[in-house]
UniProtKB/TrEMBL annotation, chain A:
UniProt protein name: FAD-dependent oxidoreductase
UniProt keywords, alphabetically: FAD, Flavoprotein, Oxidoreductase
A cellular component term, taken from the record's GO annotations: cytoplasm
Occurrences of domain Reductase C-terminal (ranges): 322-410
Cofactor(s) required for function per UniProt: FAD
GO molecular function, one term: oxidoreductase activity, acting on NAD(P)H
Domain FAD/NAD(P)-binding intervals: 6-303
From TrEMBL, chain B:
One of the Pfam families matching this protein, by short name: Rieske
Residues forming coiled coils: none
Residue ranges constituting the Rieske domain according to the UniProt record: 8-104
Transmembrane segments: none
Signal sequence annotation: none
Listed name of the protein: Non-heme iron oxygenase ferredoxin subunit
Keywords from the named record: 2Fe-2S, Iron, Iron-sulfur, Metal-binding
Organism of origin: Bradyrhizobium zhengyangense
A GO molecular-function annotation: 2 iron, 2 sulfur cluster binding
Lineage: Bacteria, Pseudomonadati, Pseudomonadota, Alphaproteobacteria, Hyphomicrobiales
C-alpha cells in the first residue's frame, strides 16, 4: 500500500457521498476525505424543482447522510471547500484556502452546472437557473400568486419548475427551441402526454421558439424570440441542459470527451483517478458508445462502483440508464436508452397511464418509458429493466397487450 | 398522546403468496404485510422512509422490499433500511394469524 492511504473525493453531491459511504461499506479503513464547495450537509437535488418549490412550509435540504453518521464512519467531510487544482505528480489536491490533501486514489464527482443560454441578457433583468438548494429557496420566494413566468427550455427541469409554479399560483409560458418538448430523452408519444397534462394545468408551451435575447422593459424582463415576438415576464427561468464540470480534470491533463472520459471501470486516463456522476462520460456495454447522463440513480450507483474499483475490486459499470420525473400528481420513469431508429410500441394502462417500449430490429427491447400514476408505472418499468438487461427478444404484440403480464416475458 | 395498540385484520392468510405484499390502511396510517417464503407474515410501516411512497407498489424479493420510486430497500422482517436512499428504519409490527386471517397489532 502506498504511503498516501487517503481516498480523496472532490464534490459532495449524490455521487461523491454515495462513494464515501460505499468505501466504508466495502471495508476501506484508511482515511476518506470528502470535499464539497457547498456549505450544508450533502443533499439531494431532485426535490429542488419539486417539494422545495411547492410544499407549504419550506422544506430544508433533503440530506443524504447525517453528520452523526459521517463522524461515526470517520468520513472527513470538508464543506465549503473548493478544490482549485490537482497535482497528479505529487498526488495531491489543492484547496482554495491553500490546504493540500494527498491521495492514494482520487474521485472526481464535481457534477454539472446549468448550461448558459448564450444570448445577450440585459443587466437588471430577472433571470434564474436552478441547481443548488440556495437557487431553489431564492426561486421559491419569487414564484407566488400572480407572478408571470417565462421558462426557457422544455426539458425536465424547466417543466418541473413550470408545474411547481402553476401549483403556487403563478402563470407560466414555456419556450422550447426544438419542435417538441423533452426531445432529448423522451419518446414522442409520452412527451405528447406530458405536454397535454401541462396545457390542461394552464401552462402555455411554445415550440420552435428560439430565444434571441432578454431585454429589460420598464423594470420587467422581456424575452425576444427569433421571429421578433416579445414576451414580458416578471421572472425568466433558464433550463436548457447542463454542462459537466470538467475544468479541474482538464487542467490536470485528464482526458475529456463530453465529460471526464472514463473506461468501463470508471477510471480516468490516469488509473489512480476515478470519476462518477454528472461530470463524466463512460462507455456502455449495451449501447456500444460513450454516454453521459444527468441522472440521480446513475450518480449514486457510479459512486458505489467507483468506490469499489478504487479499493481494488474489478467491477465494470453497466447499470442501465434510469430516470424519473414528477409532473403534477403523475410520474415519469424511463429505463434504457434510445439511440434513434427504434420502433415504438405503446401499451395503455387505461386512466392510470401509458407505457412506451422501444424495440430495435430483431425485437430486442432497448428502452421503456412510462407516464402515469406511480403505482401503475413503476412495477412495469422494473420488469422492462430486467428484459433490457438480459437482452431478451420480445414480440411487439405481447408488449402492446395490456392483458399480458410483462413478467411472463422474462 | 399515543393511542393504545389494537389488532387489525389485514387479509386472509392464504390470500398472500410467498413474497407477495399487501397494503393495509388503518386510522390514517398505512402498513404493508408481506408473506415470507417460509410462510411467516410480517408487517411494517407502508411508506418508504425516504419519501412518502407506498412500498406496497414495490417489488419483494429475497427478504427485501424495494421502494418503487427510488429503490431504497428494507428488510421486511425487521423494517431495517438496507440501501440508499433509504437510511431510516421503518417500524415493524406484531402479526398473528387468527381464524385464517392475518392480524396486525398497530
Ligand atoms: C433541480 C434538479 C432536479 C432534478 N431532478 C431529477 C429527477 O427528478 N430525476 C433524476 O434522475 N435526476 C434529477 N436531477 C439530476 C440529479 O440531481 C443529478 O444527476 C445528480 O445530482 C448528480 O450527482 P453528482 O454527484 O454527479 O453531481 P452534484 O449533485 O451536482 O454534486 C456535485 C457537487 O460537487 C461540487 N463541486 C464541483 N466542483 C467542485 C470543486 N472544485 N471543489 C469542491 N466541490 C465541487 C458541486 O458544488 C456539487 O455540490 C435533478 C437535478 C436538478 C438540479
Amino acid at each position: 500500500m502506498s504511503t498516501h492511504s487517503t481516498i480523496a473525493i472532490v464534490g459532495a453531491g449524490e455521487a461523491g457521498t454515495a462513494a464515501a459511504l460505499a468505501l466504508r461499506e466495502r471495508g476501506w479503513e484508511e482515511s476518506v476525505v470528502l470535499i464539497g464547495n457547498e456549505s450544508s450537509l450533502p443533499y439531494e437535488r431532485p426535490p429542488l424543482s419539486k417539494a422545495v418549490l411547492v410544499d407549504e412550509t419550506r422544506p430544508g435540504p433533503k440530506t443524504i447522510v447525517t453528520s452523526e453518521r459521517l463522524s461515526e464512519l470517520k468520513i472527513d467531510y470538508r464543506h465549503g471547500c473548493e478544490v482549485v487544482s490537482i497535482d497528479r505528480t505529487a498526488s495531491m489536491v489543492i484547496l482554495s484556502n491553500g490546504a493540500k490533501i494527498g491521495y492514494h486514489r482520487l474521485l472526481l464527482a464535481t457534477g454539472a452546472r446549468p448550461r448558459d443560454l448564450n444570448v445577450p441578457i440585459a443587466e437588471g433583468s430577472r433571470v434564474a437557473t436552478l441547481r443548488s438548494y440556495e437557487d431553489a429557496t431564492r426561486l421559491r420566494e419569487l414564484i407566488g400568486q400572480g407572478c408571470e413566468m417565462a421558462v426557457i427550455g422544455g426539458g425536465f427541469i424547466g417543466l418541473e419548475v413550470a408545474a411547481s409554479s402553476i401549483l403556487r399560483g403563478a402563470s407560466v409560458i414555456v419556450f422550447e427551441a426544438g419542435s417538441r418538448i423533452l426531445s432529448r430523452a423522451v419518446p414522442v408519444g409520452i412527451a405528447e402526454l406530458i405536454r397535454a397534462k401541462h396545457e390542461r394545468s394552464g401552462v402555455r408551451i411554445e415550440t420552435t421558439a428560439v430565444v434571441e435575447r432578454i431585454e429589460l422593459c420598464e423594470g420587467r424582463s422581456c424575452v425576444v424570440l427569433a421571429g421578433g415576438q416579445r414576451h414580458l415576464a416578471d421572472l425568466v427561468i433558464v433550463g436548457v441542459g447542463a454542462t459537466p464540470n470538467v475544468e479541474l480534470a482538464q487542467a490536470a491533463g485528464l482526458a475529456v470527451d463530453n465529460g471526464i472520459a472514463l473506461d468501463e471501470m470508471l477510471a480516468t486516463s490516469d488509473p489512480r483517478v476515478f470519476a462518477a456522476g454528472d461530470c463524466c462520460s463512460f462507455p456502455h456495454r449495451l449501447y456500444g458508445k460513450r454516454i453521459r447522463l444527468e441522472a440521480w440513480r446513475n450518480a449514486q450507483r457510479q459512486g458505489v462502483i467507483a468506490a469499489a474499483n478504487m479499493v481494488g475490486e474489478d467491477r465494470p459499470y453497466d447499470d442501465l440508464p434510469w430516470f424519473w420525473s414528477d409532473q403534477y400528481d403523475e410520474t415519469l420513469q424511463m429505463v434504457g436508452l434510445c439511440c434513434g431508429g427504434e420502433i415504438p410500441v405503446v401499451r395503455s394502462l387505461g386512466p392510470r397511464g401509458q407505457l412506451l417500449f422501444s424495440l430495435v430490429d430483431g425485437g430486442r427491447l432497448v428502452a421503456a418509458c412510462g407516464f402515469g400514476s406511480l403505482g401503475a408505472v413503476a412495477k412495469e418499468i422494473r420488469v422492462a429493466e430486467t428484459i433490457i438487461r438480459r437482452e431478451l427478444k420480445v414480440e411487439a404484440e405481447a408488449l402492446a397487450n395490456p392483458a399480458l403480464n410483462l413478467k411472463q416475458l422474462l | 398522546m399515543t393511542k393504545q395498540a389494537e389488532w387489525v385484520a389485514a387479509c386472509a392468510a392464504d390470500a398472500l403468496r410467498p413474497e407477495e405484499v399487501r397494503r393495509l390502511d388503518h386510522g390514517g396510517r398505512t402498513f404493508v404485510i408481506v408473506r415470507s417464503p417460509e410462510g411467516d407474515y410480517f408487517a411494517m410501516d407502508g411508506h418508504c422512509s425516504h419519501e412518502k411512497v407506498h412500498l406496497a407498489d414495490g417489488i419483494v424479493d429475497g427478504g427485501i422490499i424495494e421502494c418503487p420510486k427510488h429503490f431504497g430497500t428494507f428488510d421486511y422482517r425487521t423494517g431495517e433500511s438496507r440501501a440508499l436512499p433509504a437510511c431510516v428504519d421503518l417500524q415493524s409490527y406484531e402479526v398473528k394469524i387468527e381464524n385464517g386471517i392475518v392480524m396486525v397489532k398497530v
